[in-house]
Amino acid sequence: MPTMRDPTTLAQDLVAAMSLLTRLPLPNHTPKGAGAAWAWPVVGLVVGALAALAGWLTQGLGPGVAAGVVLTAQAMLTGAMHEDGLADTADGLWGGWTRARRLEIMKDSHIGSYGVLALVLVTLIRWSALTALVAGGHWAAVIAAAALSRVPMAVIMAMLPNARNNGLSHGVGRPASGTAVVAVALGLAIASLSVGPIATLQAALLAALPCAALALIARARIGGQTGDILGAAQQLAEAALLASLAATLP
Questions:
Q1: Other C-beta atoms within 10 Å of 64: how many?
Q2: CA atoms of 48 and 82, how far apart (whole Å)
C-alpha cells in the first residue's frame, strides 16, 4: 500500500479497485495491478452502503423483499462477477477429473448442475441472513459483510499462485503479502466500526473456514487460484459473515 504522503497513488489505487470489482462509471485512470488489492475492502464498503441504501428505501415492503433488493443491488453494482465465479468454481472443481479439464470447465460460460446448486444454496443463505438482519434494523451489517468479504480475495491471491497463464486474475497479478495484510486490517477496521469488534471477530473467524477450505481444494485440484476461485471466496465469505452477524447481533 502506498504511504499516506502519496494521495495521488492512493486515489489511483481506489479508482483501479473500483473499476476492477464494480460496474460503476468511473473516469479514465492509470491501470493498476495487484498493488491496489489493499483497497478491495473499500470497494466492499461502497457496494455495501449503496445496496443497504436500496434495501432501506424498500424496507416498507417487508424484510424479505428488502433483503432481495440488497442482493439485487449488489449484483447490479458488481456485474454479478462474484456469483459467476462461484458457479464456475463449483462446476470446475467438482465437474472434471483432471486439472486441465477442471480449468476448461471453469472457463466455459455455460453453467452446470454444481454451479446452479452452489448459486441457489449460497444465495439462499445470504438472503435468509439478510432478512433477519433487515428485520432487526442492522443495516450496518450489510456494509460490514460487504467490506470484509473482499478480504479473502486478496489473501488467497497472495498465498496461491495463479493456476493458468491467462485470465483476469493472472492479468491483475499477485499482490505482495504486505498488501494482503493491509486489506485484512482495513476490512476488520471497517467491519468493527460498523458492527463492533466482538461481532466482527466472531464473523471473521467463521468466514475464514470456508475460504481456507476453498483455497486448499483449489490448490489440490487446479494448482492454485483463478478469478473464479476469488469470486467464490467472496461469496462464501459473505454468506458466512451475514449468517454469523444475524446470529449474534441483538
A1: 14
A2: 14
